Amino acid sequence: MKDELELVFPTEEYIEKIIEFKDEFIQNGENIIYGSGGLDKEENVKEWLKNVKDDLTRKSYNKEIGRFPAALYLAIRKNDKKLIGIIQIRLKLNEYLLNYGGHIGDSVRPSERNKGYSTKMISLALNEARKLGIGNVLIVCYKENTASAKTIIKNGGILENEINDESNIYQRYWITLKKKYADARNKDDILKRRFKNIRIDKDNFHGNISLLTIKEVKKEWRIDVEQRCILANNYNWLGFYPDGKNYCITAMLDDKDNIVEWYFDMARQLGEENGVPYEDDLYLDVVLVPDGRINVLDEDELEAAYNRKEVSKKDYDMAYETANKIIKEAKGEGYLKRLNDFTKEYLKIIKDV
C-alpha cells in the first residue's frame, strides 16, 4: 500500500528529515509539536536525539530537565521514505500525565493531515506499547478536537471522563491491551484448535460458556514442581464468563477430560465480540488444583501496573477483593466437589451442542 507507515527510532541518519519536518510546523505558524519529545523547544537536533535515546532508560520523571521515561518513533511512509509524523509512548505516568497527557502523544506534519495517518500511527504505537509491557494505554485530547477523539475511538478508546482546567476540557480515553479471548487467538503455542461458545441462563449460571479443544500444540506447558501439564494435544479448556462478575474461570482438562486445574482471571470487565467471550485482564489470578491447593499469581504485575498508574486504586482494590472472595469460597467445605460437578455438568452440555 502506498500510504503504509512504519515506526522507526530516530537516529542521525534522519536529521535532515527531522529538521524539514520541524520547519514545516514553523512555516505553518505552529509552535507546538505534540508527542515530539521537546523537538519544538530544542535548537540542536543532535542534542534532541541524545535526550530521546536517554528517555528509553530513564527510571522516573527528571524534573530538572523536564523529561519522562519514554519511547519515541518517527512515522515513515514506506513508499517514499517521507517523515509523516512523530509519536511518543510515555512508559510511566505521574499525576499530571494521568490527568492531562496520557501515554501517547503524536503529531502529523501539516501537509499530510486529514489522510488517516494519525489513526495508523496510534495503531502501530499500541503494538509497540504492548511489547514494552504496557497493559492499559491512556490517551488524552482536548474535547474540542473531535478529529483526535475519533482517531482514539477507532483504535478502541473508551472515554472514562472529562477534566476541566482553567482554559480547556480534556477527554481521557483508555485502550486495553490486556484483552484475553476465550479462543486463545494470541497463544502461538496452539497450532490447531476447535472453538464453540454457548449462552446459558439457568439457576446455577448465567453467562457465556466456551469450549476450546486444543488439537495440536507447538510445545506443552508444564508448571509447578511436579511439572503439571496444562496444555497439550487433545486438551480441553472450558471457559466460564458469568454475567456481572469481575472474573472468569478456565477449567483446564487433559486428553481424558480429567481436571488439571481451575484458573480464575480477575477482570476489569467481561464482554463478547463476534460470538467470542473476552476478559479485560486485571493481572491478578487465582489457581485452584483438584487436591485443594490454592495459588495466587501475578501480584507483582498488578502492583507494577498500579505504580505505573495503568490501574486505578478502585480496580486494584476490586481485583484483591474478588480474589479474596474466591479464595474464601474455595476453602469452604464441599466447594471442590461442587465446582467439579459444575464443571462436568457444563462440559457435557457444551459437548452435546
Short note summarizing the structure:
This protein is an alpha+beta fold and 353 residues long. It is built from eight helices and 17 strands.
Would you write up a description of this structure?
- This protein has helices at residues 15-27, 45-55, 95-101, 117-131, 146-154, 299-307, 313-330, 335-352; strands spanning 5-8, 70-77, 83-90, 104-108, 136-142, 158-164, 169-176, 179-181, 190-202, 205-217, 221-223, 228-231, 235-242, 247-253, 259-273, 276-288, 294-297.
- The protein has 353 residues and is an alpha+beta fold.
- The chain has 2 domains: 5-177, Gcn5-related N-acetyltransferase (GNAT) (Aminopeptidase); 180-352, Beta Barrel (FomD barrel-like fold), CATH 2.40.380.
- It is elongated.
- Helix content is 28%, strand content 37%.
- Strand 2 (70-77) and strand 3 form a beta hairpin.
User: What would the CATH topology of the largest domain be?
Assistant: Aminopeptidase
Number of domains: 2
Q: Whole-number radius of gyration?
A: 24 Å
- Structural class given helices, strands, pairing? alpha+beta
DSSP summary: helix tally: 8
Provide the helix percentage.
25-40%
Which residues sit in consecutive blocks of at least 5 with pLDDT less than 50?
A: none
| Strand residue content | 35-45%
**Molecular shape:** elongated
Determine and state the CATH class of the largest domain. Answer: Alpha Beta
Written as H for each helix and E for each strand, in order along the chain, the element string is EHHEEHEHEHEEEEEEEEEEEEHHH
What about the largest sheet? 8 strands, antiparallel
CATH superfamily of the largest domain: Gcn5-related N-acetyltransferase (GNAT)
Please provide the count of β strands. 17
Named at the architecture level, the CATH assignment of the largest domain is 3-Layer(aba) Sandwich
Distance between the termini: 43 Å
Arithmetic mean of pLDDT: 95
